[in-house]
């Protein structure tokens, strides 16, 4: 590592916030692009499982709320891709790399949504897991990304409430409705436990070393369990992990998730990966003419 | 074409940079700004400016150490003490 890079590293570790025009090491730039691009991809792919339920939402109110959430997520994608663009990778390139499978998107968006229960569990618990990661990004060493996260977190809090409200309506409904939530929770628990990634120690995680992330993966997962397990259990739902318990020191124990499975899912081998990518390819081809009309530089 | 957005969160507050977005012209930029930055009334006003129209200036070194322009250029403690001694007003 040359002395300029070493100095930069020490500065970000001491809390420096980097701006777009500042000099930065190539490794820092490329790690930022990869991480932020995947976040943008996930916002975009994340609306597809929910989109499936716009036409099947149980009431007009729920339909409107779900569409509002989807609009938020696509808006986040726009904001986040702008951050990537200013780091040097054009949005069109991000969209191309997404559909070619060259870049990744988050594990939770590789799964199907089988019932309205899944929609509630996603908006409540997947968004809760996401907001934990995103709140930690408010302290990201790359300031333009941290600033975008402020707006994102603010909007996500509406999603969590909308999801929790949906789940509450179902668990206070008929036994069949309660069962739909329980089944959805059973399906989503493993992806939720995968969500924050392998328990790699912070000092060995390059994303932490460069202070792109400000917390270790396991800390994020523990925060999720601490915050949400009690909220799930108080509704009379069962969490499908017999090993799950809170030790006296406050640390949650759980069954070790299958990390190879996580890797397979995010590399495009999840149950809905190819279907989602196919849909994105189709959408990209179908709206190509719009880009050409709207953005002369895309023509 | 990239547009920069500045938003006023509440009346009486300054405009603060909020982010940026793509739009082909002013009419679309107006619509997108409303959708992205004000659809939940989180702003009371927006400024939108094509990025190319903005000029950023930065880097302001104090090569001649012009501290006399600032409060940290004045250390009055010792002189004040002396003045009070002379005047006989030094606190107990």
Question: What does it look like?
Answer:
Chain A has a single domain, classed as Ferritin (Up-down Bundle), CATH 1.20.1260. Helix content of chain A is 66%, strand content 1%. The model of chain A has no long low-confidence stretch (mean pLDDT 95). Chain B is α+β, with helices and mostly antiparallel strands and 92 residues long. Chain B has a domain of 52 residues: Ubiquitin-like (UB roll). The model of chain B has no long low-confidence stretch (mean pLDDT 93). The N and C termini of chain B lie far apart (69 Å). Chains A and B meet through helix 3 and helix 6 of A and strand 2 and helix 1 of B.
| CATH level-four homologous superfamily name of the domain at 2-53 in chain B | Phenylacetic acid degradation B
Indicate the overall shape of chain B.
elongated
> Spatial order of the strands in the main sheet of chain A?
1-2
Name the poorly predicted regions of chain A.
Answer: none
- The average pLDDT value of chain B, as a whole number, equals 93
Q: Which class best fits the helix and strand makeup of chain B?
A: alpha+beta
Tally of domains of chain A: 1
How many helices of chain B?
2
């Amino acid at each position: 590592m040359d002395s300029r890079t070493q100095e930069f590293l020490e500065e970000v570790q001491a809390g420096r916030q980097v701006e777009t025009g500042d000099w930065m090491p190539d490794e820092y730039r490329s790690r930022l692009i990869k991480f932020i691009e995947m976040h943008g991809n996930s916002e975009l792919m994340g609306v597809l499982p929910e989109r499936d339920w716009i036409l099947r939402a149980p009431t007009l109110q729920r339909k409107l709320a779900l569409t509002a959430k989807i609009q938020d997520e696509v808006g986040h994608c726009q904001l986040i891709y702008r951050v990537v663009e200013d780091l040097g990778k054009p949005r069109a390139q991000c969209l191309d790399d997404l559909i070619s499978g060259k870049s990744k998107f988050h594990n939770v968006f590789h799964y199907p949504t089988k019932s309205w229960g899944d929609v509630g569990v996603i908006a409540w618990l997947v968004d809760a897991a996401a907001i934990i990661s995103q709140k930690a990004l408010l302290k990201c060493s790359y300031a333009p990304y941290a600033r975008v996260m402020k707006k994102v977190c603010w909007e996500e809090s509406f999603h969590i409430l909308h999801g929790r409200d949906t789940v509450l309506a179902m668990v206070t409904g008929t036994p069949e409705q309660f069962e739909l939530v329980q089944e959805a929770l059973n399906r989503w628990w493993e992806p939720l436990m995968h969500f924050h990634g392998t328990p790699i120690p912070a000092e060995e995680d390059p994303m932490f070393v460069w202070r792109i992330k400000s917390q270790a993966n396991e800390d994020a997962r523990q925060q999720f369990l601490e915050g949400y397990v009690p909220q799930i259990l108080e509704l009379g739902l069962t969490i499908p992990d017999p090993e799950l318990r809170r030790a006296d020191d406050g640390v949650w124990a759980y069954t070790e998730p299958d990390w190879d499975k996580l890797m397979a899912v995010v590399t495009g081998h999840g149950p809905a990966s190819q279907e989602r990518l196919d849909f994105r390819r189709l959408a990209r081809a179908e709206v190509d003419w719009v880009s050409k009309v709207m953005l002369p530089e895309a023509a | 074409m990239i547009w920069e957005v500045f938003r006023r969160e509440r009346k009486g507050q300054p405009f603060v940079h909020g982010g940026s977005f793509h739009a082909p012209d002013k009419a679309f930029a107006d619509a997108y700004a409303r959708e992205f930055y004000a659809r939940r009334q989180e702003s009371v006003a927006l400024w939108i400016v094509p990025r190319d129209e903005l000029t950023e200036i930065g880097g302001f070194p104090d090569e001649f150490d012009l501290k006399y322009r600032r409060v940290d250029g004045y250390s009055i403690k010792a002189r004040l003490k002396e003045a009070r001694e002379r005047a006989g007003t030094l606190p107990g």
